[in-house]
Amino acid sequence: MQIQEAIKHLKENSKKRGFPQTVDLIINLKNINLKDPANKINKEFVLPHGRGKDISVCVIGEKEEINKAVLEELVKDKKRAKKLIDNNDFFICEAPLMPIVGKTIGRFLGPRGKMPKPIPPNADKTKFIELAKKSIRIRVKDSPVIHTIVGVENMTDEELKDNIEFVINGVRAALPKGRAQMKNVLLKLTMSKPVEIETK
To answer: Given 3.40.630.30, 3.30.365.10, 3.30.190.20, 3.10.20.90, which CATH number is that of 3-51+135-197?
Structure first.
């Protein structure tokens, strides 16, 4: 199916739920040696039309709720540290505090792909928060599968198509051999069966 055809099919043939379902993109990879660090992908993509749903962004900074003193407390309280990480989708951090983040909660953030994006200390945080809210992170670590949100079902077909194409093109560019390493591409809603889409 073409992308727009797949979006229409999913919207028309999926059972209506009591919440807006996410639209998920699944890219299965092939002929990629994940033991080679060069083949591992860890990239952030700012979706053209955002995620379609609000996400939580945690700001780490000297004058913020999460500051140096709080980070040092979190080292002693693993439960609180994990709760903070679970409750936030993205983290941004004033650059001078990044080494402290690494020493304190980095061991919890790293495996979940949530290491903060560094920002200048005096930067306008609002701009970075808005960008983070439109972002997704693609990680290929141990399994040759990418599974990411590209929007929600109540976004327009055109918005979803733009987001989907943007991610597919970004993944293709990140792969050493491009399209040749993409086995297939699937699209699904949260509670629906996936449908395969054609890519060039």
So the answer is: 3.30.190.20
What CATH architecture applies to the domain 57-132?
A: 3-Layer(aba) Sandwich (3.40)
Q: pTM here?
A: 0.82
Q: Which residues contact 182 (CB under 8 A, 6 or more apart)?
A: 27, 28, 29, 30, 171, 172, 175, 199
Which tokens is 67 given? 């500051």
Q: Find the helix or strand (DSSP H, E) in which 71 lies.
A: helix 68-74
What's the pLDDT tens digit per position in 137-157? 898 888 999 999 999 999 999
Backbone angles phi and psi of 190, in degrees to 5: -45, -50
For residue 161, pLDDT beyond 90: yes
Cα 67 from Cα 100, distance rounded (Å): 10
Residue 35 clears pLDDT 90, i.e. is over it: no
pLDDT in tens, 168-186: 999 999 998 999 999 999 9
Tell me the sheet residues that pair with 140.
Answer: 41
Buried b (16+ CB within 10 A) or exposed e, 22-39: bbbbbbebeebeeeeeeb
Measured distance CA(69)–CA(115) in Å, rounded: 19
* pLDDT at residue number 40: 82
